[in-house]
Write a structure and sequence with these properties.
Blueprint lengths: L2 E4 L3 E4 L7 E4 L5 E4 L3 E3 L5 H10 L6 H19 L7 E4 L11 E3 L8 H10 L3 E3 L3 E2 H5 L1 E6 L4 E6 L5 E6 L6 E6 L3 H11 L5 E6 L4 H5 L10 H14 L4 E7 L3 H13 L4 E8 L10 H10 L4 E4 L5 H11 L3 E4 L1 H5 L12 H14 L4 H15 L5 H8 L3 H7 L3 H13 L5
Parallel strand pairs: 7-8, 7-18, 8-13, 9-13, 13-14, 14-15, 15-16, 16-17, 17-18
Antiparallel strand pairs: 1-2, 3-4, 5-6, 10-11, 11-12
Helix pairs in contact: 1-2, 3-12, 5-7, 7-8, 8-9, 12-13, 12-15, 13-14, 15-16
The protein binds flavin mononucleotide.
Length: 421
């Protein structure tokens, strides 16, 4: 049985397992999934309370009591008994469904909260964050940001946000990590795994900083280490675990590695159809992704050279993959996820600027993403490119894009809510 609840409107029983959801923040706009499965058994406050304390959406005892009452009411409705007995009997991470999904790929300095929400608004079902190295996460702490209504992973002793997410994307955001060590990966993942839909390990990055640290594509030649990292995460996290690989030198090698990865129990495997030595302009080898799909029974997410909405179907047919992941196509125009066709890139860019303002995105990341868009369609030497390069704050960017009123409005509303959004 699936129970959907919002604190304002009570409970709704839908189907199968129970997913508890509640409205979040004073705007009552975003829903947060509390990520658990509940079965009706017997009343057991001692079992329920520790679980309620871990609920990201229940911030106060008042919220928790409301949830408790909600569970009990749902149980009463479900069992038809006036005084039903209920307890949380299974606390399991909600699995993501990887069938027929359009996936925003991980992209460094691009895949921050505003860009993920933008892609989702146009139709992306699953959105990966940028790769973050485990060492960096381990220097951080998790903070609730009441002003923005976000969960922030912030470098200790600073205000530097390393990862920001919000309840709206709780069920689709994938946290991607760079690592070369199972225990370190686990300690880092534990800081934020309850706030995301899945944890993914990057095994495809060919950049020297990754390889020299034994991360990214360096893992592809260390199947024992891959096994160690993935099984350690699987055993200790309630959150689904996945990984993203590149092709190896021969299709047989890739298939062998994919089979090994499958044995670790990961929920899905993303395959970028290029080899480590390939450049982005080299065509992705969809046929070698197809070899992997044929060899494993876990969902495979096909990645490489998807630029138009029609390509989603083409790559699915060519590879037989469960889902499709796209990076550059989405970076250049995130509305490519929309079945209605792409919007003009200027409109998409403006919406990205507004979302960056709304979620107070890091200016460096916003500038980087805008520059990538501009470079694709225009040129950084033109006035727009120069203005973006010169901008030092979101206020500067807002002014350049004629969004100063929006910027003012957002900042005023934050102020007038007295720091609670
Ligand atoms: C700007 C940019 C940043 C990227 N950052 C990451 C990353 O953080 N992690 C990762 O696994 N792949 C990263 N990639 C690779 C993409 O996720 C993807 O595998 C690759 O671009 C192929 O997909 P495409 O042909 O749709 O671009 C990045 C690609 C781009 C263009």
């Amino acid at each position: 049985m699936r129970v959907t609840m919002d604190l304002m409107r009570g409970w709704q029983v839908a189907s199968g397992k129970w997913t508890l959801m509640m409205m979040d923040g004073p705007y009552h706009r975003n829903r947060v999934s509390i990520n658990t499965r509940v079965r009706v058994h017997r009343p057991d406050l001692t079992t329920l309370w520790p679980w309620l304390l871990r609920c990201p959406g229940a911030r106060t005892d008042h919220d928790r009591v409301k949830l408790l009452v909600g569970i009990w009411r749902a149980a009463r409705r479900e069992t038809g008994k006036l005084w039903p007995q209920c307890s949380v009997s299974a606390i399991a991470g909600m699995e993501i469904d990887y069938t027929n999904k359009l996936v925003l790929a991980p992209m460094v300095r691009v895949g921050t909260l505003p860009f993920r929400l933008l892609a989702a608004e146009y139709g992306a079902d699953i959105t990966y964050g940028e790769e973050i190295i485990d060492h960096k996460i381990l220097k951080c702490e998790r903070r609730i940001n009441d002003v923005l209504g976000t969960i922030d992973v912030v470098e200790k002793g600073t205000d530097s946000v390393v990862f920001r997410t919000c309840s709206e994307e709780r069920n689709r955001v994938v946290f991607q990590m760079g690592t070369s060590d199972a225990v370190r990966a686990l300690r880092a993942a534990q800081i934020l795994c309850k706030d995301v839909a899945a944890v993914d390990i990057n095994m495809g990055c060919p950049k020297s900083f990754s390889i020299s640290g034994g991360m990214g594509a360096a893992l592809l030649t260390k199947p024992d280490l891959i096994h160690d990292i993935l099984t350690t995460l699987k055993r200790n996290l309630n959150t689904p675990v996945t990984c993203k690989i590149r092709l190896l030198k021969s299709p047989q090698d890739t298939v062998e590695l994919a089979r090994r990865i499958e044995k670790t129990g990961v929920s899905a495997l993303a395959v970028h159809g290029r080899k480590v030595a390939d450049r982005p302009r080299d065509p992705a080898k969809w046929s070698e992704i197809a070899d992997v799909v044929a060899a494993v029974s876990i969902p495979v997410i096909a990645n490489g050279d998807v630029f138009e909405y029609e390509d989603f179907e083409r790559i699915k047919v060519a590879t037989g993959a469960s889902s499709v992941m796209v990076a550059r196509g989405a970076l250049w125009n995130a509305s490519m996820f929309s079945p209605k066709g792409k919007l003009p890139w200027e409109d998409v860019k403006r919406e990205y600027v507004r979302k960056s303002i709304l979620w107070d995105n890091d200016i460096k990341s916003t500038k980087h993403t805008l520059k990538e868009m501009i470079m694709h369609y225009s040129c950084l030497e033109f006035p727009e490119g120069k203005a973006v390069i010169k901008s030092e704050t979101l206020a500067d960017l807002a002014r350049h894009y004629g969004e100063d009123n929006y910027y003012e409005l957002i900042n005023k509303s934050r102020f007038s809510f007295g720091g609670s959004r």
